[in-house]
Amino acid sequence: MAKVSKSVWALIGILIGLFLLTSSIDPYFFSIPAVGVTFALAAPLGLLAAGQTICMLTGGIDLSLAMIAAGAAFIVSVKSPSGTLNALLWGAFFCILVGSINGLAVGLFGMNPLIMTLGMNAVLIGVFTVGVTTFLKGSSTMPEILVTASNGTFLFDPFSWPLVIWAVIGGMLLFLLNKTGLGRLIFAIGDNAQAARLAGVKVWQVQWATYVICALLGGIGGVLIGGQSGAVAISLANPFLLPSVAAVVIGGTSIMGGIGNYTGTILGTLILTVLSYLLATINSSEAVKQMIYGAIILTLAWTYSKISQNS
Amino acid sequence: MKLTTDLLLEINSVAKSYGPVVALKKANLSVKPGEIHALLGANGAGKSTLVKILTGVITSDTGHISLHGKKVQFSSPDDARKNGVAPVFQDPALIPDVSLQRNLALTGTNEERFLKEIKAMGISVNLNEIAANIELPTLRMIDLARALSHDPELLILDEITAALPIDLVDKVIEIMNAQKAKGKSVIFISHRLAEIESICDWATVLRDGIDVDSFEATRQIEDRIVSAMLGEKNNITNASRKSRQRSGESKVLLEVVNLAGGKNLTDVSFEIKRGEVLGVVALEGQGQDFLFEILAGQSKPDSGEILVNGQKVVFKHPADAIKLGISYVPGDRKSALMPQRSIRENLALTRFRGFKNWGRIKGKEENRTVDNAVAALEIDTRAKSQVKRLSGGNQQKVTIGRWVTTGFDLLLCFDPTRGIDVGTKQQIYELIRKFADDGKSVLLFTSELREIQLTCDRAIVIYEGKVQADLAIEKCDEENLMNAAHGLVASS
Amino acid sequence: MNLVQARRQSWNIGIVVLVFILGFWRINQLPQFGAYEARTFILGILPIALLSMGQAVIIIGGGINLAIGAEAVLINCLSAKFMVGTSFTTSVLLALFFIAVGGLIGALTGWIVSASGIADIVVTLATSFLLVGVAMFVMPQPGGGINQGVADLIGGKDPNFIPPLVWLILPLLIIWIPLYRSRTGIAMYAIGSNKDAAFLSGVNVNRTRIKLYAGGGLFAGLSGVVLTGITLSASPFATISNTATLNAVAGAVLGGVSLAGGVGGLAGPAMAALILYFIPNILLAYGIDPAYSQIITGALTIFVVLVGGLLRKRTGKS
Fold first, then answer.
1. Distance CA C296, CA C284 (A)
2. Which segments in chain B show pLDDT lower than 70?
3. Distance of CA C214 to the CA centre of its chain
4. C288 touching A (Cβ < 8 Å)
5. Is the separation of the CB atoms in B488 and B466 below 8 Å?
């Protein structure tokens, strides 16, 4: 536990450092509204990264998460004429369906999560590309209330609806991971699934739950992205996929499973969001942005590796 | 005192620490040519660290090693092998997915010489077979044959006899004596005191990273070895012999009828009563591991019945067996523990089996049961964070401890004391007796025959897929068991 | 023939059968099938087949390179940028040079994995960003060129299909087969199968890993140069490199390489690339939305890996 705290402090330090750096270049950033916007923009990534966190804790990964997010947003917008709640239920149903297929393939059939979610990603792209012109024809914008939920201020700056949603869900996830049996099992099967089975745990059930929860988190994130960007397109969430994995890695969760937590991911998400703002502010080219992204992931992952090697 | 000039190998004041953990404080060892030298010590005493340093797996912090008076430091086991020091590790160093032939090519082993050696052992191999498809005892002998192909001056056998059938153990002893006759030497690591006495010329005992005693291995050295290993504690032969008076007839808890399955089991039938410790004796590869897996719910039998409390049961998953009170302590600690999680999480794992346990954790209750288990098993909780930092003995206790937190009626223990130091073995024996005294049952497979009389009420012997003998404890002396294991049932 | 070879042969046979079925199907759709059509096939699969082979090498050694597509794109951009308006000899030399650079980048990746102790996936995730960034830096807009003579050497002057066929088979013959038979090759399978056993068998795990990624990088370099030769240009997009990487993984896996490491060969992935090529083309000829081919390819990959995994469980391997 002490090991996690040390790295959490380091991440907080990096975040504050980045924040100050950005503020020195763009003084507007050093204000409550700006902080509020940052949190609001970070929320969708934070939710997708939350899904990746629990997948990676079990030693897996979800490379179809971007399509799940976009797909959910799509379904919600198309179904919105029949009522927002109805649309959200349809979106949730979609997430549970896809998450179940992923989870059961991994849990019951022993499929490698990388390959399974890769294949699922391709399938979803195909299904939605066809669907846009056929059975998913309809509105491509989010209903009013969800747009507010994705952007609006909550009571007063810097709080916003997306921040509140992220905070509530984040809190629930932290509770799940640290204080519930399911959370223990997620860590357990990530560390040694065979031992868990011999101890009587039905590993496939835990896998199933993991990928379904991941998909639901992705779906909520997708709805927020849809609300923030105005229109819904298939490629909506693609720019969030690799960053969602990056945020988890930066946050200190091991991709091999069994160790880590969501607190790190939250900080990783904020760091990446501030970084994006910083790079946009200094008008850096796409090339520089990519290179810095890569450098950060590598540096932090290397640091974690050295820390855990020395202890 | 050995003259330095005579020595084949001299290890001098070697020390190794991993951060704050001292694995070797100051270890010395000297081996003459033509000597079979036993290296003994509890888990955590520094034996495996010393061997790793000698064979180039790791480097020491201080001290030096000399071969024939010349200082050496090996960079890898390959380097060691090239210089005449050939290790045979507990886990055969063969690549599972690669054929034997390519394995040999990898280590630069001469194929002809290898085939000669393996034939002399009476074992036939197909060089095109991949290592993963070969069973462990054969694989161990292949590893040994490979080491011999390099004509080593010093052969290091790390617990090779553990999990070898008795006939192969004899072969290994033959090979060791043959090496000795050629003027070569062997460092023999084993926890089996009987073997040490009969085979070795000299013995060195490690304790807490120091060589505490080194002496000629004459007869009746068992006490000297044990007292050196334990320090003050020296009651292995005494404490476990409590009187075992069973009052009246107890009920039958588990009954196995005509069980067949796996590669070897053809017709196994036996029963276990409540409060009884039933020993299982068998040569390697008789299907006893499969038997345990069937009873644990991990594998399915081909035919036969299992009855618990008189009712027929079918297990589809270990959870089914656990629900009926049957818990499994596997022989391989790696398949039972979660290395990166804490002792507490490992001990409490079994509490989260079903759906209904997915909710909020009851912290106080968990703490209570975990503390109980830690106390009952005397688990050393110094390394509080991760289980992978515990010694082998402590890890084994955690494996058993998980079931103490949950409760069980029948504990399936498969070779629980394999590779465990003498002190912890003693604790495990006493624990098993305590379970029985509390009315629980234990099914115990062990490859060390002396343990049967120390811990069990009864013993069954499995040979050629069947139960060949069902012996009361009085008849369970090692000779009887050994005969029965070979299919020679003693006349009563 | 041992069990390992038997399993690999049966997998390869399965792929060959599928290739023939799909191949005949596709050929039947075409008004005619001659050298021109054959050349189109081979050119269509060559870059991705080479990339799949490179990824296969790395997966066999127990690693994975999520940046292999980025490596190919980078070499593509570098070669297209510097080969513009050069002579034949210069272009050839540059081509060889940049293929070697691909190997070097791979070696560097392998070194980072060894030195840092970070998981392959994470390292190559990071390098995928880095390499795409460098590619964008080298060539901010699509463009570049290549000496036409060299392009013909790579792609074959219409309708000559022999050159690209050579570039498909030659790497297998002169790079892979000697490597497979060598001690380094066995060492690669060793570290993919069981690192500890490999070390105890005298394998220098770190050095082998560097060679492993260098090998994969060579194929990526080849893929990049071939791409320049075929398209006579380069485009530095992250989406292209990511798609290429994932297709390379699919190709390797369809080709019988196990993600667990230590199992598989390179001939399978090369042929699997053909499968991944035929499917969308067959569907397109029927006027079916190419999106359906995405669905089929994704489902096929899942199905093949699923069946392969179940079969492996049956034969006792865990």
1. 13
2. 1-5, 19-21, 42-44, 163, 191, 226, 229-249, 284-285, 382-385, 419, 486-492
3. 13
4. no
5. no
- ipTM of model: 0.86
CA atoms within 13 A on the CB side of C149: 9
What is the pLDDT confidence band of residue A103, given thresholds at 50, 70 and 90? very high
Q: Is the pLDDT of residue A102 over 70?
A: yes
What b/e readout covers B355-370, taking b as 16+ CB neighbours within 10 angstroms? eebbeebeeeebeebb
- Test B318 with A200 for CB contact under 8 angstroms: yes
Q: Can you tell me whether residue C220 is helix, strand or coil?
A: helix
Whether the CB-CB separation of B436 and B275 falls below 8 Å is answered with yes
Taking the C-alpha atoms of residue B320 and residue A203, their distance in angstroms, rounded to an integer, is: 14
Question: In which residue are the tokens 């050069």 written?
Answer: C86
Cα distances (angstroms) measured from residue B389 to each of A195, A246, B129, B386: 17, 29, 36, 6
Q: Do A198 and B402 touch (CB under 8 A)?
A: no
Q: Is the pTM of this model over 0.95?
A: no
Is residue C310 less than 8 Å (CB to CB) from chain A?
A: yes
Nearest to A271 by CA among A248, A287, A298: A248
**Looking at the complex, does the CB of residue C123 fall below 8 Å from at least one CB of chain A?**
yes
Beta sheet of B154-158, edge-to-edge order? B70-72, B62-67, B9-18, B21-31, B210-216, B202-207, B36-41, B185-189, B154-158, B85-88
Banded pLDDT at A311 (limits 50, 70, 90): low
Round the average pLDDT of chain A to a whole number and report it.
89
Structure-token pair, residue B357: 């346990």
CA distances (Å), origin B6, targets A200, B34, C103: 58, 11, 53
Q: What is the pLDDT of residue C314?
A: 62
User: Which amino acid is present at C23?
Assistant: G
At residue C105, the pLDDT reads 97
Spatial distance between the Cα atoms of A17 and A11, rounded to a whole number of angstroms: 10
**CA dist., res. B54 & res. B77, Å (int):** 9
pLDDT at A141: 75
In the beta sheet, which residues pair with residue B378? none
Say whether C262 and B98 touch across the interface (CB within 8 A): yes
Q: Residue A174: list chain B partners with CB under 8 A.
A: none
Environment class of C170 (CB within 10 Å of its CB; exposed 0-12, middle 13-18, buried 19+): exposed
Instruction: For residue range B330-370, list pLDDT tens digits in order.
Output: 988 888 899 889 998 999 998 888 888 898 888 888 888 88
Output the CA torsion sign for B407, B412, B418, B424: positive
Residue with tokens 């700006």: A34
Nearest CA-CA partner of B208 in B27, B475, B56: B27
Residue C215's pLDDT is 95
Q: What is the mean pLDDT of residues A180-189?
A: 95
The chain C residue lying nearest B126, using CA atoms, is C2
Residue B112 CB burial class (10 angstroms; 0-12, 13-18, ≥19): exposed
